[in-house]
Amino acid sequence: MEGSLMNEKSSGNPGGFPLLRPSRIYSPEVIEDIQQKAEIGRYRIRAWSTLRRTPHLDDLTFVPCTLSRVPLEGYRETCETRTLLGARHGAKPIELRTPITIAGMSYGALSRNAKVALGTAATRVGISTTTGDGGMLDAEREASDQLVYQVLPSRYGFNPHHLRQANAAEIVIGQGAKPGTGGLLLESKVSETIAHQRTLPVGVDQRSPVRHPDFIGPDDLQIKIEEIREATEWKIPVYVKIGACRVGDDVKLAAKAGADVIVVDGMEGGTGASPEALLDHTGIPTLAAVCEAIAALREMRLEGEVNLVVCGGIRTGVDAAKALALGADAVSIGTAALIALNCNKPIYLEDYEKLGTQPGACHHCHTGGCPVGITTQNPELVKRLPVEEAAERVENFLNSMTMEIQMMARACGKSNVHDLEPEDLRALTIESALITGVPLAGMSTPLTIDAIADAIGSRLSFASNGSHRTEVAKQP
Amino acid sequence: MVPVEEATLVDCNGRSTREINELIRGAEGSVVVRNPLGRHCLGVAILKPLQVVFQGPVGWYCATMGDGLEAEIHGNCGWSVGQNLMSGSIVVRGHAGSSSGATIRGGTIRIDGNSGARTGISMKGGTLIVGGNVGYMSGFMMQTGTLVVCGDAADGIGDSMYEGRVFVGGSIASLGSDAVEAEVTEGDLAELAALNVEPSQSWTKLVAGRKLWNFSKKEFEVWKAAL
Amino acid sequence: MCGLVGFLYRERYGPVGEIQVKMLDALYRRGPDSTGVAIYGHPRSETYVLHARIDASDGAVESVKALEGMKDVTSAGADLRAEVTWAGELERLADSVEHANGHIEVTSIGRSMEIIKDVGSASDLDRLYGLSQREASHAIGHTRMATESRVDVLHSHPFWARPFADIAVVHNGHITNEHKLKRRLEMKGHRFFTGNDSEAIAVYIADKLADGATLDDALKDSVRELDGTFAYLVSTRDGIGVARDPFATKPMLWAETDEFVVMASEEVAILAAFPDAGLVPQELAAGEVRWWYL
After folding, report:
1. CATH code reported for the domain at C2-40+121-293
2. Backbone phi, psi, residue A393, to 5°
3. What is the ipTM of this complex?
């Protein structure tokens, strides 16, 4: 009995080893969560994305050239990054100098300076930006050479003149952070300007509807896409964006409905505000989503004809390169672009503390108190983000991404980043091997049902031939 | 309306929707569209003063995203007629499908007959008048603007509104979340008279109770029905 | 996701096949994957008419001909048609046909109902099976855009409410409690042959009718018990019923004259068959059901 008391924390017991033993199920986080809900009487709301670790592109590694293949020189031998999106129905495609786009984030969720900085950087780098759940900001249209105009369930600020000024239209069915639900902008960010643009009373907790007001299913979507084309005289590509759920089915439906580009946003995708439960418990990881999406397009023989853009947790050029290798035509970044702007920068530390957080763990966009002026409508805070410097940071980051993509491609012997293939990858975990069909490192056969069935099948027929036993018998 | 002889005539027979819309967009003054026969997406994004008469029933998304047009539809229309109208007018001399006048931001839409579910959904301005009855969840998430229903309203009328106003002239099956009755003022009656509308019984006015405008732990019963 | 059509002559037989082809062709954009109809000609008293999907090359026709009760077995393309004398459970008839040699899937059995369905358009159906030549009292039809199950004939509508003679369903939308319904019906002894949610509606209705409910009651119960989005048509030997979900998510219009009743997902389909009849179709209300008898 005395031995078992050794680990009990008790004052006066010199042999006791002081040890807190928190439950994994009723962890300190869970305790805090329940007690918060006991105060507020509703679900928790925050920004960013799931805080969970998910099966991710990190679980894959490249296998560049060594003896069996020849790598390209990093300094002189070209590695093409040009990417065209949306030519399926004869529209003028979006032309990206590198296969990266800036994802849809609203003016409202973001400050004016943030939107203009992103647009400025995108123009310098030669890529596109996207409007968000509030409509087009004139300043963003001016700053961004290629602007994708979102058609969202809320239709806040929707203006056919703006649609016709856009370079592409993106019908948003949902987003990876919170699929199956609508947008959210809390009170402090529904300022006079934002409220006016969205035709809302100042200071409401804006909750966007989840469904589009004028169509409901994928059969209706086909007619809606036709309407958008008629409204824009067939001149611009039409994208359909989905949050990653039943990706295979949804990609097929979007393709059948006529989408030129399909944007698939995985569960790691971020947002300015969402019920927390949705962030952590809805959607599937981007790693799985990109594989399901490309398999669906291949099954329909539309790979290459319908373009695939993948987003949700793309943080570096390496992530982008892996997504391309798995079959994406381009990636989109949201959170990473904000971080390049200054999100979570260790400055104005006391303002992070006021929000109850610190740089490195801040996901408090929903409060409207962004210490660095990105996700706020407070003019005093927005001043902390001068456009020119912010644009330069994003431009630098985008250039770094491009260099990383090219570096991976060249190492794998590709003169065009779009020639990266799943065969250039190996999986580092069984999960990612099963999810992607990429062989586990050290194996050459993928862990797919078909490959396993083939292998078993060939061994059974080999054994029944008896030839193997004969061979063995002949050896001395 | 301008007499038919002076209008540009567009016959839908044998033409693609794209061709029809190009002809409509390229016309000046007025256009008569013949044989629409339920075609979708006719007259989309007419962004200049233009009179358009559709001589027959049309399909979905007729006369949507307009700014300055004056349209008449001589027959039924499908879903989402006049969606996101910015300014101008649309008259439907027939019944309309669901989502009529969705997200309009200005202008006036008048439907002589009945209109389906979600009539006036997410209106952001403008005036939408229905001579007959409206279907389920009409006026859902109205932000501003005026919805006038001369006949009856099905379940869920005026659900989750912001600053919109709904006038119902007949019976109401059930109110939507946070829809409350408000007093019909002299000013309201004058406005309605000017719109040339008659209630089938008498006017009931609905506005938002404002309980869903901000998250609140109180009034759980109200929030239970909202997300 | 799909386009639906329905048509019924109140008191006669007429060119229902031709009407179906015109209506379904007008809805092609809603359903590029496959097309099908359940069409009701003159009812037999002694025999049943049976349709099955076969692989034309593998001797299925011959092996079906050899089965008990088979009177007149023909095939056109991948469709096998047989007149059969049969007393007893139709489930056993369907099973025995499916166990004959070759790849065979029974698609309908009835005294008057014939289900004709294939990948492709209504014009394809006409070309392969002479649909526009058929005279009938009533029919329902469907063009399909596959949502979550496969694109092939077996997963195409109409679904025969197997093993109940002469009952079929076409559905637009997605039943989100499909698996729960199927499990409940399986406990009662029913079987399901596809991964398609619409099949659940067919068996659900047939089960109610078999338990003695009227079509009216079955339709009304379904509006409460089916979850998800739906507009659907159910056809029986004597009539057609239609139901729309309580959130009015999927379109459904109908119009009637003294002579006939017509229904469709979009007015364009009604106009394609009756451009000059001066019909003014109305939308079915949220949660509304209607039915019409011969």
Report:
1. 3.60.20.10
2. -65, -45
3. 0.93
DSSP string, A262-277: EEEE-TT--EEEEEHH
Residue B215's pLDDT band (cuts 50, 70, 90): confident
Q: For a pLDDT cut of 90, what percent of chain C falls above it?
A: 78
Helices (H), A199-300: 218-231, 247-257, 276-281, 286-299
Check if C3 contacts A (Cβ < 8 Å).
Answer: yes
Contacts of A376 (CB under 8 A, 6+ apart): A111, A189, A368, A369, A370, A382
Residue in A39, A200, A227 closest to B61 by CB:
A227
Q: Which of A214, A215, A219 to mutate to test the interface with C (most CBs of C within 10 A)?
A: A219
Extents of the domains making up chain C: 2-40+121-293, 44-110
Domain regions of chain B by residue span: 4-224
Residue C281 corresponds to which tokens in the numbers above?
A: 């179709």
Contacting chains of C (3 CB pairs or more, <8 Å) are: A, B
Enumerate neighbours of B (3 or more CB pairs within 8 A). A, C
- Which structure tokens are listed for A204? 């409401």
Per-residue pLDDT of B135-150, as tens digits, reads: 999 999 999 999 999 9
3-state secondary structure A328-393: CCEEEECHHHHHHHCCCCCCCHHHHHHCCCCCCCCCCHHHCCCCCCCCCCCHHHHCCCCHHHHHHH
Kindly state which CATH superfamily the domain A57-425 is placed in.
Aldolase class I (3.20.20.70)
Do residues B139 and B176 touch, judged by C-beta distance below 8 A?
yes
- The span from the CA of B175 to the CA of B181, in Å, is 9
**Percentage helix, strand, coil, to 5, in chain B?**
10, 30, 60
Which pair of structure tokens corresponds to residue B129?
A: 């008048």
Residues 6+ apart with CB under 8 A from C199: C159, C192, C193
Chain C, 14 to 33: residues with Cβ < 8 Å from chain A are 29-33
Instruction: Tell which of B48, B64, B138 to mutate to test the A interface (max A CBs under 10 Å).
Output: B64
What's the pLDDT at A468? 43
pLDDT tens per residue across span C47-68: 999 999 988 777 888 899 999 8
CATH architecture of C44-110: 2-Layer Sandwich (3.30)
Domains C2-40+121-293 and C44-110 share a fold: no
Interface contact flag, B94 C280, Cβ < 8 Å:
yes
Q: Is-contact A280 A29, C-beta < 8 A?
A: no
Say yes or no for a CB contact (<8 Å) between C280 and B118: no
Segments in chain A below pLDDT 50: 1-7, 467-476
Q: Chain C closest CA to A224's CA: distance in Å?
A: 12
**A105 to chain C, minimum CA–CA distance in Å?**
29
- Give how far the C-alpha of residue B163 lies from the chain's centroid of Cα atoms, to the nearest Å: 17
- Examine the residue annotation and report whether C2 is marked as an active-site residue of this protein: yes
Q: Where are the domains of chain A?
A: 57-425
A-B interface: how many C-beta pairs under 8 angstroms?
120
- pTM value is 0.91
Residues of C in contact with A220 (CB under 8 A): 1
Helix axes A218-231, A247-257, angle to 10 degrees: 40
Tokens 């359909």, residue? A240
- State the average pLDDT over residues C74-99: 92
User: Quick one: CATH architecture of B4-224?
Assistant: 3 Solenoid (2.160)
Torsion of CA C82, C88, C92, C94, to 10 degrees: 30
* Dist. CA B77–CA B57, nearest whole Å: 6
Longest dimension (CA), chain C: 52
The first and second tokens of residue C144, run together, are 């399909």
Q: Which of A214, A223, A225, A229 has the most B C-beta neighbours within 10 Å, making it the best mutation to test the interface with B? A: A214
Nearest residue to B168 via CA among B177, B160, B155: B155
